[in-house]
Specification:
This protein is of the alpha+beta class. 15% of the residues lie in helices and 46% in strands. It contains 4 helices and 15 strands. β9 and β10 form a beta hairpin.
Length: 252
């Protein structure tokens, strides 16, 4: 059961862009344009449709697939923006694992095996040899893009607005609905290590307590090259954006 939470935390471990990853800008300093689209206007429209609740209390069906595992269950996810992420994973109504993630710390209790971890978030970096970032996991739960900077290249691809950027080490590719400016997908790639993280959103709709549409389905594809690949599907079945919410955590 711990694999559920490790899969969620794996999203953290692929937040390797610790500096700006950008694309070309116009040589004279003017905005990049594509078919009358202007990058500053696009970024403003994206920001206007960005979900940024103070609290999130969600229930979701979760399915995890990897080279060695295929399993499903129910995830309970609670978020206090910029403060904490709490998760509990159950199967057949029995809690198998619980996690609490803060910007600087990581707690995990594997109830089935009686195993617990209480470490700085840097533990994830040390154990899995790749950096960890709290804000990436938070934004993915909210359905937002990460590392969205003002020096990306603007274009169109397959009927979507496309924003791309590339540096010697990293590449990013975002796709947005041109009518709603809602995020359809984002791909983050570490070029030297051939590691990728791809997140796609679907089933946008209105939710009480949130002023913008919310994507009720997520698919997270992680390809860690030599570390292996996996897929996680989340389908939110209950969403609330009122708080505060309890985040109980104990090793018992």
């Amino acid at each position: 059961m711990r694999l559920y939470l490790l899969a969620l935390v794996a999203v953290l471990t692929l937040s390797y862009c610790t500096r700006k990853t950008g694309g070309p800008t116009a040589g004279d300093g003017t905005a990049v344009t594509t078919n009358k689209l202007r990058l500053p206007q696009v970024l403003r429209s994206i920001d206007d449709n960005r979900a940024a609740p103070e609290w999130m209390n969600a229930k979701a069906r979760v399915d995890l697939k990897s080279e060695k595992l295929s399993i499903g269950g129910t995830a309970y996810i609670r978020v206090h923006r910029d403060e904490a992420i709490w998760m509990s994973v159950k199967k057949f109504g029995i809690e198998g694992a619980r996690a609490l993630i803060r910007p600087d710390s990581f707690f995990l209790f594997n109830r089935l095996e009686g195993e617990y971890i209480a470490e700085p978030l840097s533990y994830v970096e040390e154990k899995y040899k790749i950096p960890a970032r709290f804000e990436l996991l938070q934004e993915i739960f909210f359905g937002n893009a990460v590392f969205l900077t003002d020096d990306l290249e603007l274009g169109r691809a397959e009927g979507s607005i496309q924003l791309t950027g590339r540096s010697p080490d990293f590449a990013v590719d975002y796709r947005y609905d041109p009518a709603t400016f809602q995020l359809s997908s984002m791909e983050l790639e570490e070029l030297g290590q051939s590691r990728t993280l791809n997140v796609s959103n679907a089933d946008y709709g209105s939710v009480e307590g949130l002023p913008v549409a919310f994507a009720k389905r997520r698919r997270v594809l992680v390809d860690g090259a030599s570390e292996g690949a996996g897929q996680m599907d989340l389908e939110f079945t209950d969403l609330r954006f009122e708080g505060p919410v309890d985040m109980p955590f104990s090793f018992r």
